[in-house]
Design a protein that fits this description.
The complex is a heterodimer of chains A (about 140) and B (about 240). Chain A is mainly beta. Chain A contains one helix and 16 strands. Chain A has one domain. Chain B folds into two domains: about 110 residues, Rossmann fold; about 110 residues, Tumour Suppressor Smad4, CATH 2.60.200. The chains are: A mainly beta (about 140), B alpha+beta (about 240).
């Protein structure tokens, strides 16, 4: 996914390496690897990797993400969020698919899936109508 | 109409035989043209611009990296197609990036005429082709006006346009994407750390004290640098072996 030194270019990838601090709102359309420190909102329409020892002090948005470092802010991931054993997230998580390795720390609310918010209970119907109503099949619920 | 510009160093006896072969091959391929010869105190850029005014549609520089650098200031001003016919062993990094083989072999590549529009970098009022280097600094770089990156300890900052060769290693960049490759080589204590890499349209650097900045074969001192790219502002004949 990411090239080594001397081979950059072509892919549009961004690497914030250890020993480097980024201040301000960062937006990217390519893959992003954070190994250093980011103080500001981080948004990418592609993949994000937060390496062990990395620290992000802001809200994060990405298509998919693998986190082994620390995020102090809300995390919104469209597709899959993977929290590795060394991950620390102090903020709310909103994602479609979530994987948490034992050892990872999350202090915040977790929202998952594309399920629509619960509607108010429907008014009581007579028995005939209730017989006609279709039973909810498991495949109707997308997790 | 083709116009061939012979650099000063290729006009000696050493390259007489090579030039004879090249001129014959160009005639065989039907792409021979007028020849201009660079000399001391002759402005290469003005020489080429004059010939473009007279109708030259393709300008082939015969020489090496230095030959291209002599005319880089006129590249964004003209819509002419340029090419490099590499001669001599030294300073042939740009020819490798463009995929141009040495000597007479380049004639066939010129004839095949694969043309690409390439970016030209600009630092303040100076154009650059390969890269900008700010050595041993921890100055903050303002990126596209929205955020700043700064190494915690001193290291080299590179801003690549076409990229370059250093100790036979190709420091790559994409000269066709309209973006600069910003590489920050951070240090961790005494060790070299990993490199930060970003693709950006422009960066600004400001410091309180004067600092040196190197680009191509030039050096400037200052405390405020605006580094930009002029996307696809030069047309080049390239070979299949090009590095991008």
């Amino acid at each position: 996914m990411f090239k080594k030194d001397g081979e950059y270019g072509g892919g549009g990838e961004t690497i914030i390496a250890r020993g480097v601090k980024l201040e301000g709102d960062f937006k990217s359309e390519g893959n992003v690897v954070v190994e250093g420190e980011v103080n500001g909102a981080l948004t990418t329409s592609n993949d994000l990797r937060v390496s062990e020892g990395a620290k992000i002090n802001a809200n994060v948005k990405a298509q998919s993400a693998v986190v082994a470092g620390e995020i102090n802010g809300n995390v919104k991931v469209k597709d899959k969020l993977e929290l590795l054993a060394t991950a620390i997230v102090a903020g709310d998580i909103d994602t479609k698919n979530l994987s948490i390795t034992p050892g990872a720390i999350v202090n915040g609310k977790i929202s998952m899936g594309d399920i629509a918010p619960a509607e108010e209970p429907a008014p009581k119907t007579n028995k005939r109508e209730s017989k006609k109503s279709k039973a909810i099949e498991p495949e109707d619920i997308e997790l | 109409m083709y116009y061939y510009v012979y650099d000063e160093f290729v006009q000696g006896r050493k390259y007489e035989k090579d030039l004879f072969q090249i001129e014959n091959r160009l005639t065989d391929l039907g792409i021979s043209g007028k020849i201009g010869r660079l000399a001391l105190f002759k402005d290469a850029g003005e020489l080429v611009k004059d010939e473009i005014r007279r109708g030259a549609e393709t300008v082939i520089m015969v020489g090496n990296d230095e030959t291209i650098l002599k005319i880089k200031k006129i590249l964004p001003e003209v819509k002419t197609t340029f090419g490099l016919l590499p001669l001599g062993e030294e300073k042939q990094h740009l020819s490798k990036i463009l995929g141009m083989p040495q000597g007479v072999l380049a004639c066939d590549v010129i004839s095949a005429r694969i043309v690409r529009e390439l970016d030209i970098g600009k630092v303040n009022d100076h154009y650059f082709i390969s890269r900008v280097l700010i050595p041993d600094t921890n100055v903050a770089i303002r990126c596209e006006g929205t955020y700043e990156i700064a190494p915690k300890e001193k290291g080299d900052i590179e801003i690549r346009n076409w990229g370059m060769f250093e100790k036979k290693e190709y420091l790559s960049a994409n000269p066709e994407d309209g973006l600069l490759d910003v590489i920050v080589h951070a240090k961790l204590g005494k060790k070299d750390g990993d490199s930060t890499a970003l693709k950006l349209k422009y960066v600004d650097i400001r410091t309180k004290e004067q600092m040196p900045l190197f680009f191509d074969n030039e050096r400037i001192n200052g405390n405020s640098f605006k580094i930009r790219t002029a996307p696809r502002r030069s047309r080049w004949i390239v070979g299949k072996q090009r590095m991008f």
